[in-house]
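User: Structure please.
Assistant: Input sequence and predicted structure:
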Amino acid sequence: MNLRRFLAAVTAPLAVLGTTTVAGSLPAQASAQPGPLSTVKWKACPEYSDQVLDWMGVRDKAWFRATMARMDCGTVEVPLNYADPSGRSISVAVTRLPATDHAHRLGSLAVNPGGPGGSGYLMPIELSQPGAPTAKLNERYDLIGFDPRGVGYSTKVDCEAGGPAGVQAQGLAGLQGWAGLQGLQAQGVQAQGVSPSQITEDDARQMYDKQVQANKDCAQADPAFIGQLTTGNVARDLDRIRIGLGEKKLSYLGVSWGSWLGPVYRSLFPGKVARMWVDSVAPPDPRMDAFEAGRAKATAMDFSRMAAWMARFDDTYGFGTTPEQVEAALAELRRDFDARPRTFTDLERPVDGFVIAISAAQPSVAWPLAAKVLAELRDATGPTAPPTVKEVLGGGERTPPPAGVPEMDNSTANQAIFCNGDGGARDFDSAWAAYQDGLTRYPVTGVLSFPVPSCAGWPLPVEHIRLLHTGGSLQLSGHRYESVSAYEWTGDMQDAVGGEVFTVEDDMHGSALMEPGCATHVVAYLDTGDPGATGCQGVPVPTGPDELPKAGAQLAGSQPQFGAMSAGR
């Protein structure tokens, strides 16, 4: 998932948050020789208009421009295929924000916000902005941002009409058109004109066939390039950046998919990592089917926490005084809205059981708002939508970006890196059986899972990397109640690569970089090698129904806020 969109979604209640996964590639020896191209070609940094900065949500334009003025921008030429280093080359865009305390400089710290397909080009500035709990990192580190191959200012290829993601976004009735639910379009649950809660096996087979064709078409846009969009190759590119910077070792900070990229780099280049912290840890096994199953289980577990919280405030919400009563009431509410979708004259689409499910799958910071939406929907008599429902679901279209906006995410790179590393089952029958099982196991949130595999029909080879215990310093921060990156994956990753587990007692994806009580340990570790603790509290659970997000809070799919720190996709 990409951290940047997530933070907007933290205050944007009805969002399904992104994904992380793993990918593989060639043996480490194939990339050990740096060759003649491992230099950074520095050049002028991009300039952004006031309109662009406004669209990005930059709050302090003077500070941003002053920081851009001291940032270095450049490119590194790398082989497209590391097995053919003298063949076609591509360009990887790099930024460097020099340490402000050069006398006590520790080295270079590469940063990645997640994805795959997320841009890290401006992440050094995001981490350093005034008031950010990570701002101290730039005192002793050169912060190194980069756009992975296939993204942003790096060499890229875009599939026509959005490729597989475009097919996925073609439109579920009751989903397309909800400004607050646009983030769901990346989930692959879309069938033309069909509500997610009403997908039949025939609908899913049609979706599967479209996904297969879209994946084949996308891969054939430039198979030589798209086939080399792998996490392993991004890690090799990162080592070329290290060499170009003249560093013997590189420190690293990654979130979400960046928590897979880091261990892959560490496995391919043992001895080249100084300190590494990864947050919201990805699973070490590159299977999208297992990823979906783990995420569905974690989502249902966090919903049970939300039900227990709602039960404490039955006087406000009226769904029951025990967690079991709340869960049963919301399961019945979802079934009722599936059977009788509600139509409101001031909303473009009917509201069905899928909206109930997505409301029940929110992280704790959004529980007061999501619970209020659920109560209003239960009690709604029409013809107009209740006020909170209208605020959340009636947000309108996203403002089109002005010319010159940097690319924050690339859907082609996202799909290719996922699928080039997906070693899981991709057949229809397995996916449909898993989807049906999820509906039974998780009667409220099971509908949020994928009914078809997003990599169905992907024609390019799957590459494999064996993660290794290479020694060296590594912190793995997992979030005990998170549904995007299930906490159990943190232990699985530790088993695969070693390191120390740092537990965040919240359900917020990527919050270790955002929450001051956690970020102070991240900064301490990167400064000294010792985080000073084995965990932190994280984002607190709301104390009551009145802790609502601010009026007009962003919804998923609305403009990103640069001033609110990025968090994983």
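The first strand starts at residue 40 and ends at 43.
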